[in-house]
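Section 5.1 Outputs to date
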Amino acid sequence: MTSPPLGELSPLSGRDGQLRSPFSHILARLCGSCRGIEGAGIVDEEGESVDIHIVRCRARRGALGRLDGFTIKLAGACFQIALRQANCEDPERLTRLEVETNDQGYVVAPLGGGFLGKGYVLVVLCAPGTTSRVSPRALREAVVGIAGEAGWNVPRPEKPRWRRVRVQSLPDGAPYKVDGVAVQRLSRAPSAGPGFTRRYHIGMGDAAALLVREPSGHWYLRSPGVSAAAPERHNFAELAVAKTSGVRG
């Protein structure tokens, strides 16, 4: 399944004076997953924003302390143009692009149709020097969650699916509950590796799972048959009706 044609997604937003959409909570969750993220947006193939989320209280931006919606929209539109012009033999293999400038960092991930096809992208804006902190697990959770809300096939379905979970730990740090459900610790895996500080193999019922604690302090679960999102799929005709004067360009 490819991305829906232009017009089936209406430009909506949950921030900066615009309407909320079914994707707002996914963007908010992503923005809260890592230090340094200042905002994120979903942008269609024409460079129009479907939804944006802005992180407030960034002192480096002065009194307002935050990005504005136009900055996120402009970044998304620019990356759509640049990625369409890129020369790539296998665009479907592109899963993440990082760009650093003196003033801003950017992380871009495809959502549907690939970077260079008729697809949507997720663009994340970061403080300078912090793009590497954007967790690949958090980014993957957002991509899978957005695909679930939109009714798209998940990009790169063979890749692991992660979801952020709440973990209760014993005094030695070992997990004993995940999202309020008791689990069995099977073993602690070696922790030497990028992007995590602890790894545990745990038992959840009859299934084994991998539980990872990232430097941010957030825990992520990967297990067979567990999707990062299984929400109700929304009717985009209804979303189109929801487009009102609350949308600002």
